[in-house]
TrEMBL record:
<dbReference type="InterPro" id="IPR047192">
    <property type="entry name" value="Euk_RPA1_DBD_C"/>
</dbReference>
<protein>
    <recommendedName>
        <fullName>Replication factor A C-terminal domain-containing protein</fullName>
    </recommendedName>
</protein>
<keyword id="KW-0479">Metal-binding</keyword>
<feature type="domain" description="Replication factor A C-terminal">
    <location>
        <begin position="299"/>
        <end position="408"/>
    </location>
</feature>
<feature type="region of interest" description="Disordered">
    <location>
        <begin position="494"/>
        <end position="567"/>
    </location>
</feature>
<dbReference type="Pfam" id="PF08646">
    <property type="entry name" value="Rep_fac-A_C"/>
</dbReference>
<comment type="similarity">
    <text>Belongs to the replication factor A protein 1 family.</text>
</comment>
<dbReference type="InterPro" id="IPR003871">
    <property type="entry name" value="RFA1B/D_OB_1st"/>
</dbReference>
<feature type="domain" description="Replication protein A 70 kDa DNA-binding subunit B/D first OB fold">
    <location>
        <begin position="19"/>
        <end position="111"/>
    </location>
</feature>
<dbReference type="Pfam" id="PF02721">
    <property type="entry name" value="DUF223"/>
</dbReference>
<keyword id="KW-0862">Zinc</keyword>
<dbReference type="GO" id="GO:0008270">
    <property type="term" value="F:zinc ion binding"/>
</dbReference>
<dbReference type="InterPro" id="IPR012340">
    <property type="entry name" value="NA-bd_OB-fold"/>
</dbReference>
<dbReference type="GO" id="GO:0003677">
    <property type="term" value="F:DNA binding"/>
</dbReference>
<dbReference type="InterPro" id="IPR013955">
    <property type="entry name" value="Rep_factor-A_C"/>
</dbReference>
<keyword id="KW-0863">Zinc-finger</keyword>
<keyword id="KW-0238">DNA-binding</keyword>
Length: 567
């Protein structure tokens, strides 16, 4: 049955319930139920009319029985008597604040004729993205030729599931270049294409409904969970036209000029990430003078007591947000200060109404050569603890005092965090340019593993520094070289901390009751008070005296405090 009175998306009248729309289902995905992941919670769609205007659509769980068999991606349908809801999310897949809601009175009929575009691409130029001239709360479509495709990586996501990641750059016809990252099924799609087309020289890709993310203060395009649509050398007008526009002399982006196809498809496992990265002892960390990643094997012995274990972050860039509070002249106690409803991101300078709690745990770890301070960030902490920060703080709301600092929630260490104490892990840490340039003093954890196989293999690696030390002691007949206090700070790409915090060496250490410190009388071993590397309150790690000049009495004055635990 043909319908003649068709309402276009731009002409939707919210006061009229009796309208008919002719729409193509450009994208369709199913959201899993929050409790039972095997059940479908809703069907979500991106719909397009014959003018190419798009709107999102949704079918709730209660109406799945009626519509699920009628809806498929790429088909054309008449939607009769739909309802319209408001899009609540600040981030939108299409530029429309309303969405089509399929309800009991809604009817769906198939249609075979559609005088509109097939895919409805709305390309954003790479130049506009690189110059920050785009809507940050809206998805983007980009097209370009693949360059610098890195080996495919495999990592564990927040649910402990092995997930693939592909990173590369794309170049457009204007010569603009931007980084692109594909996750999960999109990385799998790329792998499958490369395996089926081993002789392919050029790859032109379209990322539809991609999301702009920030990495090291530069914009990049990532896939968006189940929503993004990826086209790789598809026989469609947009890709064919793009290929024709590439001159034969400009082959800098061709795959043949970078590396062989086989190396693209190599999967980087956790074993390789740790075992193929330079392995060193803690005492060697502070001697590194160049940007690199290194692996250490160490035991968590405590937390930095005056540092919070989490923070409230921006919904866009993950940096810390600060509450916007109007302070009057009349002094108030913390309990009298009302909780603010608006927060300001310290990086983006945007206002956030519902900040996201995230982990940022400053820990002290020890091996047989010393102690170092590390920062465990949200992604690795969630994988390790199997819980989100939001779940951990429960229903408690954050409290704010006039100095704009969170209190209580993030300064009392929950019992779950103390389960990390006295456990040995492999840490892949980053020595970044920022750390080197600013002489900061806590290193960011890039990846952490408790895998027995990885730890066992690292344990078997030769300890070159110990051999050199013994040779120095016995051959030169000199005292054991004093060990430096190895403390550093990271400039992680999501850290919310102020760059002014340059040292945690003087911060008190919180540790478990089983981590007692003892001394040894052996002349060949360092006193463990040295190995802990915690300076007296008046010391500064950049100007402190040689450890050999610190008396045992002074070292004994360094107190290790019992962690505060939520009750």
């Amino acid at each position: 049955m043909e319908h003649t009175n068709i309402t276009l998306i731009k002409n939707i009248d919210l006061t009229n319930d009796d309208i008919t729309m002719k729409l193509r289902i450009v994208r369709l995905w199913k959201l899993p139920d929050h409790i039972n992941k095997k059940e479908v919670y809703s069907i979500e769609m991106i719909l397009m009319d014959e003018e190419g205007t798009k709107i999102t659509g949704t079918v709730s769980k209660m109406f799945l029985f009626k519509f699920s068999r009628l809806l498929n991606e790429n088909i054309i349908i008449f939607v009769i008597k739909p309802n319209f809801g408001k899009v609540r999310s600040s981030y939108k897949y299409v530029d429309n604040t309303n969405k089509v809601v399929f309800v009991s009175s809604t009817q769906v009929e198939r249609c075979n004729m559609f005088n509109g575009p097939q895919f409805g691409f709305s390309f954003t130029s790479l130049k506009a993205i690189l110059e920050h001239k785009f809507l940050e709360d809206l998805s983007v479509d980009v097209i370009g030729e693949v360059q610098d495709l890195q080996p495919i990586k495999t990592f564990l996501n927040g649910e402990g599931i092995a997930t693939k990641q592909a990173t590369f750059k794309i170049q457009d016809l204007e010569g603009q270049v931007i980084s692109v990252t594909l996750f999960a099924e999109y990385a799998e799609q790329l792998i499958e294409y490369l395996q089926k087309h081993p002789e392919e020289v050029r790859l032109v890709v379209i990322l539809q409904f991609g999301r702009i993310k920030w990495f090291q203060e530069k914009p990049a395009v990532n896939t968006s969970y189940h929503v993004t649509k990826l086209f790789i050398n598809d026989d469609i007008e947009e890709i064919i036209s793009f290929k024709k526009s590439i001159t034969t002399t400009d082959n800098c982006g061709s795959l043949s000029t970078t590396m062989s196809k086989g190396s693209f498809i190599s999967i980087v496992t956790d074993d390789e990430l740790f075992l193929k990265t330079e392995f060193i002892n803690i005492e060697e960390v502070s001697e590194i003078k160049e940007e690199k990643h290194v692996v250490i094997l160490a035991t968590i012995i405590g937390f930095i007591e005056d540092k919070p274990w989490g923070y409230f972050g921006c919904t866009k860039c993950y940096k810390k947000v600060e509450p916007l509070i109007l302070i009057d002249d009349k002094p108030k106690s913390p309990s009298e200060v009302e909780e603010p409803t608006i927060y300001r991101c310290t990086k983006c300078l945007i206002d956030v109404t519902i900040p996201i709690p995230r982990f940022r745990i400053e820990i002290r770890v020890q091996d047989h050569t010393g102690v170092v301070s590390l920062t465990l960030f949200d992604r690795e902490a969630r994988k390790l603890l199997k819980v989100s920060t939001k779940d951990l703080i429960g229903s408690q709301s954050k409290q704010v005092i006039q100095s704009n600092q969170e209190v209580s929630d993030f300064y009392a260490y929950p019992p779950l965090l103390t389960t990390l104490l006295q456990r040995k892990f492999a840490f892949k840490i980053e020595i970044s340019k920022f750390v080197l340039d600013h002489s900061l003093s806590v290193y960011g954890i890039n990846k952490i593993s408790a895998d027995d196989s990885i730890i066992s293999q690292l344990n078997q690696k030769p300890d070159e520094s110990d051999s050199q030390r013994l040779t120095y002691m016995f051959v030169a007949s000199q005292d054991t070289p004093t060990m430096k206090d190895v403390v550093s700070v990271t400039d992680d790409n999501v850290t919310p901390a102020s760059h002014a915090e340059k040292s945690t060496a003087t911060s008190p250490l919180v540790r478990g009751k089983n981590s007692a410190v003892s001394s040894t009388s052996s002349d060949l071993k360092r006193n463990l008070s040295d190995a802990y590397g915690v300076d007296p309150p008046t010391a500064n790690s950049t100007t402190k005296k040689d450890r050999s000049s610190v008396s045992s009495g002074q070292a004994d004055q360094i107190k290790l405090l019992v962690p505060k635990v939520e009750k």
